[in-house]
Protein backbone atom coordinates (compact mmCIF):
# COMPACT_ATOMS: atom_id res chain seq x y z
CA UNK A 1 0.00 0.00 0.00
CA UNK A 2 1.07 3.57 -0.61
CA UNK A 3 -0.19 6.98 0.39
CA UNK A 4 -0.64 9.92 -1.99
CA UNK A 5 -1.07 13.32 -0.37
CA UNK A 6 -2.18 16.42 -2.29
CA UNK A 7 -0.59 19.67 -1.10
CA UNK A 8 -2.45 22.93 -1.70
CA UNK A 9 -0.58 25.73 0.09
CA UNK A 10 -2.76 28.38 -1.62
CA UNK A 11 -2.07 31.94 -0.36
CA UNK A 12 0.04 33.84 2.17
CA UNK A 13 1.50 31.85 5.07
CA UNK A 14 -0.07 28.72 3.59
CA UNK A 15 3.10 28.69 1.46
CA UNK A 16 5.22 28.54 4.62
CA UNK A 17 3.21 26.21 6.84
CA UNK A 18 2.16 23.52 4.34
CA UNK A 19 5.78 22.72 3.41
CA UNK A 20 6.39 22.50 7.18
CA UNK A 21 3.64 19.90 7.50
CA UNK A 22 5.14 17.96 4.60
CA UNK A 23 8.52 17.92 6.33
CA UNK A 24 6.91 16.57 9.52
CA UNK A 25 5.13 13.77 7.59
CA UNK A 26 8.36 12.86 5.82
CA UNK A 27 10.13 12.59 9.17
CA UNK A 28 7.72 9.84 10.29
CA UNK A 29 9.30 7.46 7.79
CA UNK A 30 8.51 3.78 8.22
CA UNK A 31 5.45 4.26 10.44
CA UNK A 32 3.66 5.32 7.27
CA UNK A 33 3.36 3.51 3.94
CA UNK A 34 5.56 4.84 1.12
CA UNK A 35 4.29 8.39 0.67
CA UNK A 36 4.10 10.54 -2.43
CA UNK A 37 3.21 14.24 -2.48
CA UNK A 38 1.44 16.02 -5.33
CA UNK A 39 1.79 19.81 -5.54
CA UNK A 40 -1.51 21.45 -6.44
CA UNK A 41 -2.65 25.04 -6.87
CA UNK A 42 -5.72 27.01 -5.81
CA UNK A 43 -6.52 30.33 -4.16
CA UNK A 44 -6.66 34.03 -4.85
CA UNK A 45 -3.18 34.26 -6.33
CA UNK A 46 -4.07 31.39 -8.68
CA UNK A 47 -7.22 33.30 -9.58
CA UNK A 48 -5.40 36.53 -10.40
CA UNK A 49 -2.87 34.59 -12.48
CA UNK A 50 -5.16 32.16 -14.31
CA UNK A 51 -8.72 33.47 -13.91
CA UNK A 52 -9.89 30.48 -11.83
CA UNK A 53 -9.53 29.97 -8.08
CA UNK A 54 -9.84 26.20 -8.22
CA UNK A 55 -8.37 24.76 -11.44
CA UNK A 56 -9.99 21.60 -12.82
CA UNK A 57 -6.61 19.78 -12.71
CA UNK A 58 -6.49 20.30 -8.95
CA UNK A 59 -9.95 18.79 -8.45
CA UNK A 60 -9.18 15.89 -10.79
CA UNK A 61 -5.94 15.07 -9.03
CA UNK A 62 -7.68 15.09 -5.63
CA UNK A 63 -10.50 12.89 -6.91
CA UNK A 64 -8.47 10.40 -8.92
CA UNK A 65 -4.93 10.38 -7.62
CA UNK A 66 -4.84 11.49 -3.97
CA UNK A 67 -5.89 9.65 -0.79
CA UNK A 68 -6.04 12.84 1.22
CA UNK A 69 -4.84 16.44 1.12
CA UNK A 70 -3.52 19.38 3.10
CA UNK A 71 -4.92 22.82 2.36
CA UNK A 72 -3.13 25.98 3.57
CA UNK A 73 -5.17 29.16 3.61
CA UNK A 74 -6.77 31.47 1.11
CA UNK A 75 -6.83 35.23 1.00
CA UNK A 76 -10.26 36.53 0.17
CA UNK A 77 -10.60 39.92 -1.47
CA UNK A 78 -12.24 42.45 0.84
CA UNK A 79 -14.53 43.60 -1.99
CA UNK A 80 -16.54 41.26 -4.15
CA UNK A 81 -14.45 40.29 -7.20
CA UNK A 82 -16.41 39.16 -10.24
CA UNK A 83 -15.79 35.49 -11.00
CA UNK A 84 -14.05 34.70 -7.70
CA UNK A 85 -15.46 32.29 -5.18
CA UNK A 86 -13.72 30.50 -2.34
CA UNK A 87 -11.92 27.33 -3.45
CA UNK A 88 -12.23 25.80 0.01
CA UNK A 89 -16.02 26.01 -0.03
CA UNK A 90 -16.05 24.53 -3.54
CA UNK A 91 -13.73 21.70 -2.49
CA UNK A 92 -15.90 20.76 0.47
CA UNK A 93 -18.81 20.43 -1.97
CA UNK A 94 -17.00 18.60 -4.75
CA UNK A 95 -15.40 16.07 -2.41
CA UNK A 96 -18.50 15.82 -0.16
CA UNK A 97 -16.53 16.71 2.95
CA UNK A 98 -19.57 16.89 5.20
CA UNK A 99 -17.82 17.07 8.55
CA UNK A 100 -15.58 19.77 9.93
CA UNK A 101 -13.64 18.33 12.83
CA UNK A 102 -11.77 20.65 15.12
CA UNK A 103 -9.92 19.35 18.16
CA UNK A 104 -9.21 22.05 20.72
CA UNK A 105 -6.39 21.27 23.07
CA UNK A 106 -4.60 23.47 25.63
CA UNK A 107 -1.30 24.66 24.20
CA UNK A 108 0.71 23.14 26.99
CA UNK A 109 -1.13 20.02 28.02
CA UNK A 110 0.23 19.02 31.42
CA UNK A 111 -0.82 15.44 31.86
CA UNK A 112 -3.19 15.10 34.77
CA UNK A 113 -4.09 18.77 34.97
CA UNK A 114 -7.87 18.80 35.24
CA UNK A 115 -8.42 22.29 33.89
CA UNK A 116 -6.80 21.42 30.57
CA UNK A 117 -9.08 21.86 27.55
CA UNK A 118 -9.23 18.71 25.46
CA UNK A 119 -12.25 18.48 23.21
CA UNK A 120 -13.38 18.07 19.63
CA UNK A 121 -16.03 20.19 17.92
CA UNK A 122 -17.74 18.27 15.11
CA UNK A 123 -19.61 20.60 12.79
CA UNK A 124 -22.04 19.60 10.05
CA UNK A 125 -20.68 21.20 6.90
CA UNK A 126 -23.33 21.04 4.17
CA UNK A 127 -26.68 22.42 5.26
CA UNK A 128 -28.47 24.48 7.95
CA UNK A 129 -28.66 28.22 7.15
CA UNK A 130 -25.54 27.96 4.99
CA UNK A 131 -27.47 26.61 2.02
CA UNK A 132 -27.73 30.36 1.27
CA UNK A 133 -31.39 30.50 0.28
CA UNK A 134 -32.17 34.07 1.17
CA UNK A 135 -34.72 36.46 -0.20
CA UNK A 136 -35.53 40.06 0.43
CA UNK A 137 -39.03 41.39 -0.24
CA UNK A 138 -40.97 44.51 0.50
CA UNK A 139 -43.64 43.97 3.14
CA UNK A 140 -46.21 46.18 4.75
CA UNK A 141 -43.60 47.81 6.99
CA UNK A 142 -40.69 47.96 4.56
CA UNK A 143 -37.92 45.53 3.69
CA UNK A 144 -38.14 41.96 4.88
CA UNK A 145 -35.46 39.31 4.59
CA UNK A 146 -35.87 35.58 4.99
CA UNK A 147 -33.48 32.64 5.00
CA UNK A 148 -34.36 28.97 4.67
CA UNK A 149 -32.77 26.54 7.06
CA UNK A 150 -32.40 22.97 5.86
CA UNK A 151 -31.89 20.06 8.24
CA UNK A 152 -32.13 16.53 6.87
CA UNK A 153 -32.16 13.20 8.64
CA UNK A 154 -29.46 11.93 6.27
CA UNK A 155 -26.98 14.72 6.97
CA UNK A 156 -27.74 14.73 10.71
CA UNK A 157 -27.25 10.97 10.94
CA UNK A 158 -23.99 10.92 9.04
CA UNK A 159 -22.49 13.74 11.12
CA UNK A 160 -23.84 11.99 14.20
CA UNK A 161 -22.13 8.75 13.21
CA UNK A 162 -18.84 10.58 12.70
CA UNK A 163 -19.17 12.16 16.17
CA UNK A 164 -19.97 8.86 17.91
CA UNK A 165 -17.03 7.19 16.18
CA UNK A 166 -14.71 9.94 17.40
CA UNK A 167 -16.13 9.80 20.93
CA UNK A 168 -15.81 6.02 21.03
CA UNK A 169 -12.09 6.25 20.31
CA UNK A 170 -11.39 8.75 23.13
CA UNK A 171 -10.78 7.95 26.80
CA UNK A 172 -13.88 9.76 28.11
CA UNK A 173 -16.28 8.58 25.37
CA UNK A 174 -18.66 11.45 25.99
CA UNK A 175 -20.80 13.17 23.35
CA UNK A 176 -22.74 16.42 23.75
CA UNK A 177 -25.45 17.20 21.18
CA UNK A 178 -25.81 20.93 20.62
CA UNK A 179 -29.18 22.29 19.52
CA UNK A 180 -31.91 24.80 20.27
CA UNK A 181 -34.92 22.56 19.97
CA UNK A 182 -36.80 24.34 22.73
CA UNK A 183 -37.34 27.12 20.17
CA UNK A 184 -36.73 25.48 16.79
CA UNK A 185 -38.47 22.23 17.56
CA UNK A 186 -38.87 21.10 13.95
CA UNK A 187 -35.38 21.70 12.52
CA UNK A 188 -33.25 21.37 15.64
CA UNK A 189 -35.66 18.70 16.81
CA UNK A 190 -34.84 16.59 13.76
CA UNK A 191 -31.11 17.09 14.27
CA UNK A 192 -31.34 16.10 17.91
CA UNK A 193 -33.51 13.04 17.27
CA UNK A 194 -31.39 11.82 14.38
CA UNK A 195 -28.23 11.94 16.49
CA UNK A 196 -30.00 10.49 19.55
CA UNK A 197 -31.31 7.57 17.48
CA UNK A 198 -27.76 6.35 16.85
CA UNK A 199 -27.01 5.96 20.54
CA UNK A 200 -28.15 2.35 20.64
CA UNK A 201 -25.37 1.48 18.19
CA UNK A 202 -22.80 3.11 20.51
CA UNK A 203 -23.72 1.98 24.03
CA UNK A 204 -20.18 2.70 25.31
CA UNK A 205 -20.61 6.43 24.60
CA UNK A 206 -22.41 8.61 27.15
CA UNK A 207 -24.65 11.26 25.61
CA UNK A 208 -25.65 14.67 26.93
CA UNK A 209 -27.51 17.54 25.32
CA UNK A 210 -27.02 21.26 25.66
CA UNK A 211 -28.80 24.27 24.24
CA UNK A 212 -26.37 26.25 22.14
CA UNK A 213 -26.51 29.46 24.18
CA UNK A 214 -25.79 27.80 27.49
CA UNK A 215 -23.18 25.66 25.74
CA UNK A 216 -21.20 28.82 24.94
CA UNK A 217 -21.56 29.96 28.54
CA UNK A 218 -20.33 26.65 29.91
CA UNK A 219 -17.59 26.47 27.29
CA UNK A 220 -16.05 29.59 28.83
CA UNK A 221 -16.80 28.71 32.46
CA UNK A 222 -15.88 25.02 32.54
CA UNK A 223 -14.50 23.87 29.18
CA UNK A 224 -13.15 20.68 30.74
CA UNK A 225 -16.68 19.18 30.89
CA UNK A 226 -16.70 18.73 27.12
CA UNK A 227 -15.24 15.82 25.21
CA UNK A 228 -16.91 15.64 21.78
CA UNK A 229 -19.54 18.19 20.72
CA UNK A 230 -21.69 17.74 17.63
CA UNK A 231 -23.64 20.63 16.13
CA UNK A 232 -25.51 21.82 13.04
CA UNK A 233 -23.52 24.05 10.69
CA UNK A 234 -24.16 27.56 12.08
CA UNK A 235 -23.85 26.68 15.78
CA UNK A 236 -20.81 24.57 14.98
CA UNK A 237 -19.15 27.45 13.15
CA UNK A 238 -19.53 29.76 16.12
CA UNK A 239 -18.69 27.16 18.76
CA UNK A 240 -15.57 26.00 16.99
CA UNK A 241 -14.13 29.53 16.77
CA UNK A 242 -15.12 30.23 20.38
CA UNK A 243 -13.46 27.00 21.50
CA UNK A 244 -10.30 27.93 19.59
CA UNK A 245 -10.15 31.19 21.56
CA UNK A 246 -9.83 29.14 24.76
CA UNK A 247 -6.41 27.85 23.84
CA UNK A 248 -4.71 31.02 22.65
CA UNK A 249 -3.16 31.50 19.26
CA UNK A 250 -4.92 30.64 16.02
CA UNK A 251 -1.51 29.38 15.01
CA UNK A 252 -1.97 26.12 16.93
CA UNK A 253 -5.53 25.04 16.06
CA UNK A 254 -5.87 22.32 13.40
CA UNK A 255 -8.90 20.90 11.60
CA UNK A 256 -9.91 18.36 9.03
CA UNK A 257 -12.74 18.39 6.54
CA UNK A 258 -13.90 14.82 6.22
CA UNK A 259 -16.30 12.79 4.13
CA UNK A 260 -16.73 9.05 3.66
CA UNK A 261 -14.13 8.90 0.90
CA UNK A 262 -11.73 11.75 1.47
CA UNK A 263 -10.13 13.81 4.22
CA UNK A 264 -8.46 17.19 3.96
CA UNK A 265 -6.39 18.74 6.74
CA UNK A 266 -6.58 22.51 7.10
CA UNK A 267 -5.20 24.90 9.74
CA UNK A 268 -7.98 27.06 11.15
CA UNK A 269 -6.14 30.33 10.56
CA UNK A 270 -6.15 32.45 7.41
CA UNK A 271 -3.36 33.67 5.15
CA UNK A 272 -2.03 36.20 7.72
CA UNK A 273 -0.76 38.85 5.28
CA UNK A 274 0.64 40.83 8.24
CA UNK A 275 3.34 38.24 8.89
CA UNK A 276 3.71 36.55 5.50
CA UNK A 277 7.23 36.16 4.16
CA UNK A 278 9.00 36.71 7.47
CA UNK A 279 9.52 33.07 8.47
CA UNK A 280 7.64 33.64 11.75
CA UNK A 281 4.28 31.93 11.08
CA UNK A 282 3.51 29.23 13.60
CA UNK A 283 3.62 25.90 11.73
CA UNK A 284 1.93 23.94 14.55
CA UNK A 285 -1.67 24.29 13.30
CA UNK A 286 -0.66 22.78 9.95
CA UNK A 287 1.55 20.09 11.45
CA UNK A 288 -1.27 19.08 13.79
CA UNK A 289 -3.70 19.13 10.84
CA UNK A 290 -1.40 16.64 9.11
CA UNK A 291 -1.46 14.41 12.22
CA UNK A 292 -5.24 14.67 12.40
CA UNK A 293 -5.56 13.71 8.74
CA UNK A 294 -3.31 10.68 9.26
CA UNK A 295 -5.28 9.68 12.36
CA UNK A 296 -8.51 9.89 10.39
CA UNK A 297 -7.04 7.49 7.84
CA UNK A 298 -6.10 5.07 10.62
CA UNK A 299 -2.36 5.78 10.77
CA UNK A 300 -2.40 6.19 14.56
CA UNK A 301 1.27 5.50 15.17
CA UNK A 302 2.44 8.10 12.67
CA UNK A 303 -0.08 10.63 13.95
CA UNK A 304 0.94 10.02 17.58
CA UNK A 305 4.59 10.53 16.77
CA UNK A 306 3.87 13.91 15.20
CA UNK A 307 1.56 15.05 18.03
CA UNK A 308 3.94 13.93 20.76
CA UNK A 309 6.81 15.76 19.09
CA UNK A 310 4.74 18.96 18.93
CA UNK A 311 3.67 18.56 22.59
CA UNK A 312 7.24 18.13 23.64
CA UNK A 313 8.52 21.19 21.74
CA UNK A 314 5.68 23.32 23.13
CA UNK A 315 6.27 22.10 26.68
CA UNK A 316 10.01 22.80 26.37
CA UNK A 317 9.05 26.39 25.66
CA UNK A 318 12.49 27.13 24.17
CA UNK A 319 11.47 27.32 20.54
CA UNK A 320 8.17 29.12 20.12
CA UNK A 321 7.09 31.55 17.41
CA UNK A 322 6.15 35.15 18.37
CA UNK A 323 2.38 34.41 18.53
CA UNK A 324 3.16 32.16 21.52
CA UNK A 325 5.47 34.71 23.08
CA UNK A 326 8.72 33.31 21.71
CA UNK A 327 11.37 34.49 19.26
CA UNK A 328 11.82 31.42 17.11
CA UNK A 329 11.54 31.28 13.34
CA UNK A 330 9.14 28.94 11.55
CA UNK A 331 12.09 26.93 10.26
CA UNK A 332 13.59 26.51 13.76
CA UNK A 333 10.32 25.20 15.16
CA UNK A 334 9.98 22.76 12.25
CA UNK A 335 13.54 21.58 12.77
CA UNK A 336 12.93 20.99 16.50
CA UNK A 337 9.73 19.06 15.79
CA UNK A 338 11.39 16.93 13.13
CA UNK A 339 14.21 16.09 15.55
CA UNK A 340 11.68 14.96 18.20
CA UNK A 341 9.79 12.86 15.65
P1 LIG B 1 -5.81 35.35 9.89
O1 LIG B 1 -6.12 34.04 10.54
O2 LIG B 1 -5.09 35.29 8.60
O3 LIG B 1 -4.96 36.23 10.90
C1 LIG B 1 -5.45 36.72 12.16
C2 LIG B 1 -4.28 37.08 13.07
O4 LIG B 1 -3.69 35.87 13.56
C3 LIG B 1 -3.17 37.85 12.36
O5 LIG B 1 -2.62 38.78 13.22
C4 LIG B 1 -2.16 36.77 12.04
O6 LIG B 1 -0.83 37.24 11.96
C5 LIG B 1 -2.33 35.79 13.19
N1 LIG B 1 -2.04 34.42 12.75
C6 LIG B 1 -2.83 33.63 11.98
N2 LIG B 1 -2.22 32.47 11.75
C7 LIG B 1 -1.02 32.49 12.36
C8 LIG B 1 0.07 31.59 12.47
N3 LIG B 1 0.08 30.38 11.89
N4 LIG B 1 1.15 31.98 13.20
C9 LIG B 1 1.17 33.16 13.80
N5 LIG B 1 0.17 34.07 13.74
C10 LIG B 1 -0.91 33.74 13.02
O7 LIG B 1 -7.20 36.10 9.73
P2 LIG B 1 -7.49 37.53 9.03
O8 LIG B 1 -6.37 38.47 9.26
O9 LIG B 1 -8.84 37.89 9.47
O10 LIG B 1 -7.57 37.20 7.48
C11 LIG B 1 -6.48 37.33 6.56
C12 LIG B 1 -6.88 36.68 5.26
O11 LIG B 1 -7.09 35.29 5.45
C13 LIG B 1 -8.16 37.24 4.68
O12 LIG B 1 -8.02 37.35 3.29
C14 LIG B 1 -9.20 36.19 5.06
O13 LIG B 1 -10.28 36.18 4.18
C15 LIG B 1 -8.39 34.93 4.98
N6 LIG B 1 -8.89 33.82 5.82
C16 LIG B 1 -8.84 32.56 5.29
C17 LIG B 1 -9.23 31.46 6.02
C18 LIG B 1 -9.08 30.13 5.39
O14 LIG B 1 -8.35 29.96 4.44
N7 LIG B 1 -9.75 29.09 5.91
C19 LIG B 1 -9.75 31.60 7.39
C20 LIG B 1 -9.70 32.95 7.90
C21 LIG B 1 -9.30 34.01 7.11
MG1 LIG C 1 -15.59 30.10 11.21
Automatic annotation (TrEMBL):
Q: Where is the Isopropylmalate dehydrogenase-like domain?
A: 4-337
List cofactor names only.
Answer: Mg(2+)
Q: Which UniProt keywords apply?
A: Magnesium, Metal-binding, NAD, Oxidoreductase
Instruction: List the Pfam families hit by this protein, alphabetically.
Output: Iso_dh
* GO MF, any single term: NAD binding
**Coiled-coil residue spans:** none
What's a GO cellular component annotated to this UniProt protein?
A: mitochondrion
Q: Which InterPro entries match?
A: IsoCit/isopropylmalate_DH_CS (IPR019818), IsoPropMal-DH-like_dom (IPR024084)
GO terms under biological process: isocitrate metabolic process; lysine biosynthetic process; tricarboxylic acid cycle
- Entry-linked SMART domains: Iso_dh
UniProt cross-references to SUPFAM superfamilies, sorted A to Z: Isocitrate/Isopropylmalate dehydrogenase-like
Family according to the record: Belongs to the isocitrate and isopropylmalate dehydrogenases family.
Q: What is this protein called?
A: Isopropylmalate dehydrogenase-like domain-containing protein
Lineage at the top is: Eukaryota, Fungi, Dikarya, Basidiomycota, Agaricomycotina
Amino acid sequence: KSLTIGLIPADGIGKEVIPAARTAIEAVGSDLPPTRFVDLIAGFETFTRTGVALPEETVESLQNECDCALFGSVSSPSKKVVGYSSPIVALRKKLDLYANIRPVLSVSPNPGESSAVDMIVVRENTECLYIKQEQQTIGEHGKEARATRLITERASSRIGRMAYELAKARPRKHLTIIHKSNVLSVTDGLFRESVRALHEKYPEVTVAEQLVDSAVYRLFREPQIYDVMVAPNLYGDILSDAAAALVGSLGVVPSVNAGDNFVMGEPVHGSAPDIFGQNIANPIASIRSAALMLRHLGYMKGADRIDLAVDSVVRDGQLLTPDLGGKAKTSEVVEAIVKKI
